[in-house]
Write a structure and sequence with these properties.
signal, D-Maltodextrin-Binding Protein, domain 2, ABC transporter substrate-binding protein, 19% strand, Bug_dom1, BUG
Length: 324
């Protein structure tokens, strides 16, 4: 009887493996949807569209971008977690959507185990930018102004739990100031309000705010990086500005629903790797002050390590921000 059960189980496993291999061999047969957890025009959206175009070429199928904004990215991740695990629905995420969100929204209908990592596709750098008529002209003056006017400075971000929110939290914590953090349904609407002087400034990634700084629509204050950015050579690093404690270097990665066959994950990973190594992506990333992962950082395992690290990191930082 035991022998029969073992043989039966072995046969089932063999059929499953053959089915997975067959699925991967034919994959993809139709367009793939990439869910972006924020409104169009923000950092995640720009990076997603840049990478998706080249991944589509590598896979021989179009990758369609679907923007699903709300709740700091958790609305989109809930949608992605419920998708059929066949590789035709994937999502782009970051330390906010795929790590900090579990502390901020403890009652989410998904967990880190609801997703399998595909690949890290970009490294990003956080910037604080102010409306162009803000009275403080440098970081030292800004901090002094903020301390003299507690709670009166408004800094916009892409929603509680987003990577931009983490930039804000890291900044105000390092600076020791009391500022009002204003959430939007994406980085682009926040930047629009900063340009229109509806808010005092934004916490944003270089990918989405650099152009506006260079066009003098807003004024860059500081970048949370160890080196200056080539696209913003006049913008001081946090150490140069006198606040080395402010660090804002992030990542963007691709995820699939739990249960997606490993053979399909491997095919998506290979396409992502090919995409970020193309001249088109390298040029676009350079224009955005965004960096592609190093050769040894393309694996799903590396992305999983980042998620595990940041879930713990932001749990310590954001425990007081949890939504009941």
């Amino acid at each position: 009887m035991i022998s029969f059960v073992v043989k039966r189980l072995s046969a089932v496993i063999a059929v499953a493996l053959l089915s997975s291999a067959a699925l991967a061999q034919d994959f993809p047969k139709r367009p793939i949807t990439m869910i972006v957890p924020f409104a169009a025009g923000g950092t995640s959206d720009v990076i997603a569209r840049t990478v998706a175009e080249q991944m589509g070429i590598a896979l021989g199928q179009t990758i369609v971008i679907e923007n699903v904004a709300g709740a700091g990215g958790s609305t989109a991740l809930a949608r992605a977690s419920r998708a059929e695990p066949d590789g035709y629905t994937i999502a782009i995420g970051n330390a906010g959507t795929n790590a900090a969100t579990y502390t901020i929204y403890p009652k989410l209908p998904f967990t880190p185990d609801s997703f399998v990592p595909i690949a890290m596709v970009a490294k990003t750098f956080g910037i604080i930018a102010l409306r162009k008529d803000f009275p403080a002209k440098d970081l030292k003056a800004f901090i002094a102004y903020a301390k003299a006017n507690p709670g009166k400075i408004n800094l916009g971000h892409a929603g509680v739990g987003s990577s931009n929110y983490l930039i804000c939290k890291s900044f105000v914590t390092a600076a020791g100031i009391d500022a009002t953090l204003v959430g939007y349904r994406g980085a682009a609407p926040a930047l629009t309000d900063a340009i229109g002087a509806q808010i005092d400034g934004v916490c944003d990634a270089a990918a989405s705010v650099s152009q506006s700084i260079n066009e003098k629509l807003v004024r860059g204050l500081v970048v949370g990086s160890t080196v200056r950015l080539a696209t913003l050579p006049d913008l001081p690093t946090s150490a140069e500005a006198g606040l080395p404690e402010f660090e804002a270097q992030g990542w963007n990665g691709l995820f699939a629903p739990k249960g997606t066959p490993q053979a399909v994950i491997a095919k998506l990973n290979a396409a992502a790797r090919t995409a970020v190594e193309t001249d088109a992506v390298k040029k676009r990333f350079a224009d955005l002050s965004t960096v592609a992962p190093d050769a040894d950082e393309h694996t799903p395992e590396v992305l999983q390590q980042l998620v595990t690290r940041d879930v713990e990191k932001y749990h310590k930082m954001l425990a007081g921000d949890a939504k009941q």
